[in-house]
Amino acid sequence: MNHYRWAAAKAVVLLSVTSVLSVPVFAADAGALAKASQNPVANLIQVPFENNSNFNAGPDDKVLNVLNVKPVVPVKLGEEWTLINRAIVPIISQPGVDGTSVGRKNGIGDTVYQGFFTPTKPGKVIWGIGPEVQLPTHSNSRLGNNRWAAGPAAVVLMMPGHWVVGGLASQIWDITDSGDEDISLLTLQPFANYNFGGGWYVSSAPVITADWEADGEQWTVPLGGGVGRVMHLGKQAVNLKAAVYGNVIKPDGGPDYNVQLSLTLMFPE
User: What angle do CA 223, 185, 242 make, to 5 degrees?
Assistant: First the structure.
């Protein structure tokens, strides 16, 4: 995968586990909301905006910026099951290369849809499973792949005491032939959150990927974390978070570190 395509391939898998909650805003204080907001499969309409600034990316060590817009819409399927629908739409600003005709490109990358089937009334172990589909919605050939891709996705977590711990996993393969590069991408996201009360929490949720079709190093492994707070801006419940991750393993051209700032609008029933 060349220096430009790697960015588009990774852009759509920058997921966040601090984007949805499982209890109504009016029924919980800020501390309870903060813990509930860390459940990736919950019954709440919400809209996260997650900006990722990736530093020292590409052959000239420039900044790759990806703003992920990730609306989540749950749909009840009878009394027993809920389908959590999430779209991930990346808005990408990808650097060019100095001394060439290749300049910075700005536009939309490939959209990812995730659908998690989860029990409406979960037990101590909360889980969801379903499909992940990547759609070729990119506005420029450097920002995506013309192939469609699909595969399974799953999440499992527990919420003991002040903690919310678990992980997400997905694997997608290309399912169409467009002449572009093959797609085979594994994504793993372990997460651990500790809640202090008053809406404050600390979180680590690195997005680990393996691009099985890449030449050379296939893994990207970040380490790091951040701090966040659930609060109200007027009548609007929001989740604010800032985090920093450094890539301890990365392919050639991959960024050295990532600064993540996110704002999630939450809409209870």
Answer: 30
Structure-token match 């990808």, residue found: 94
Q: Which of 2.30.130.10, 2.40.160.40, 2.60.40.10, 3.30.1660.10 would CATH assign to domain 5-267?
A: 2.40.160.40
Q: Is the pTM of this model over 0.70?
A: yes
The region of weakest confidence among 50-54, 198-202, 217-221, 224-228 is 198-202
Q: Are 242 and 229 in contact (CB under 8 A)?
A: no
Task: Report long-range pairs for 67-74 (Cβ below 8 Å, ≥24 apart).
Answer: 67/91, 68/11, 68/12, 68/14, 68/16, 70/15, 70/16, 70/19, 71/45, 71/46, 71/47, 72/19, 72/20, 72/44, 72/45, 72/46, 72/47, 72/48, 73/45, 74/42, 74/43, 74/44, 74/45
